[in-house]
Amino acid sequence: MVTGLGGRLLSIGLGALVLVLVFALATRWAGPLAGTTAAALFCSQGLVVGYFSTVHFAGLVALLHLLGLYTLYCTDWRRRHLLAMAIFSLLFLVKNNYWPTIPFVLAILVFRPQPLRDRLALVGIAVATPVVFFAWDPQHLKMLAYVPIVQRWVEPLGYHPWYMLTEDAGRMAMSEYADIAWEFSLAGRIKGIAGGVLFLAKRYAAWFAMLAVAAGIALWCSRDWKAGLKLWAAPGVATTFWLFWYLAGFQFIVMGPYAKQAVGFVGAVAPLLAVGIGCLVAVVVERFLPSRRARLAVLSLLTLAILVSPWVHRQHNLPRRISLADTPITILPRIADRLAALLPAGETRIFSLADPMPLHLAGRRAYPQQFTQERWGFTSLRDRQRYARVGMWGPAELEAWLGADARYAVVESDLVHFYRNRPLYGDVLDRMDALLAQHFTLLAEISGRPGDSFRVYRRKNLTAVADPDTGLNRPG
Fold first, then answer.
1. Which residue, 198, 212, 458, 217, is CA-closest to 341?
2. Coil, helix or strand for 457?
3. Among 282, 197, 270, CA closest to 232
4. Distance of CA 376 to CAs 92, 162, 164, 253, 419, Å?
5. 125-170 pLDDT tens trace
6. What distance lies between CA 369 and its chain's CA centroid?
7. SS3 content of the chain, % helix, strand, coil (to 5)
8. pTM here?
9. What would the pLDDT profile of 286-296 be if each residue is shown by its tens digit?
10. In angstroms, what is the C-alpha Rg of the chain?
């Protein structure tokens, strides 16, 4: 059986490398105080640390950004600009939210004084990965559904963003901690973005406060905004700082009307802002504040911001106290052990309305449409032609799988509750319950987190199932 420890150790390793690069970049550009400040900000921000402590793309995204910047600005290799472009181009394979980094860096590099062959080489390196990716399989074009303007080119192919295929997408944007409008009109989008920006400011309040104080001191002491801008005179500091804001802004474009979720994708590039703030604070303290008392005041404020960050900036539903027995690293393997005992090895005809991680750890596989995302891939739409091409599933698949094809089923109570709270799914879930009662026998109920459980079912007559090669087993 697979365990979750390997993935956690990988994430910790990536996070450690990110921390080293954050310290190295800031120290290289503005001295030890800058490096210490940047590293401390990164390590103390509760939300950011959360992204880097789980099996998540954030570590790899941050590592590629920082490694590319270090290669470009902190080495003296003859072809470092080509190598840096190659590193940044790998972001295309990680997450489409960070594709904008590639043209940003290309624009900076291609206009530098250099031979024409180097310019052509930079362009070739930047476009090579996307060209190979899309040429490898035409179905990869579905990724363009999340690219503004370009998304209209793939709509005739049946590719749409998931939120256009979710009838009650607005309900998913509602929460106790961020009530941000979900609207498709231009005015609604602007309102949502405004709410998202305020939500972002709340999530990074300590950082933004420190940034405002340092920038304010610099401008006040210099009395000249041009002199203030020279704080980023060191090569790379301005690139790093403005790359963060560029990517943060793009998240609101990529996520469409789901402005609240855009804030979540900023966490992966937050180390860039930590580097920028660290450099700014160091320059202000060491060059703009001759008074020892003033320097001590700024450093005290910085220390306070670092100390309160773990409590002020934390995941909204993270428990204040938790025992080792209640952590996912303990609970998930226990559930996986039970699933491995109940589900035959090699079985792939498993209906799953549950967190796919325990199945993965158990070495079992559900239908592909259900095995990667349990909360965004299930639609209540009745028109299968609209959603099948993008790998979602809905009432048609539920009927086919539970009605004739699936040999086993795994249903999580917490996930059923999530969909039951959305009225459009009521009839679909009623049909699921009816099919389970008609064709399946309950094998076991496995306890999960407090208040959550996994119910495992087996088809009553395993010899009477349909051909496993039915088209509904595969995305359209």
1. 458
2. strand
3. 282
4. 22, 7, 11, 19, 11
5. 999 999 999 999 888 888 888 887 888 888 888 888 877 777 776 6
6. 19
7. 70, 5, 25
8. 0.85
9. 877 778 888 88
10. 25
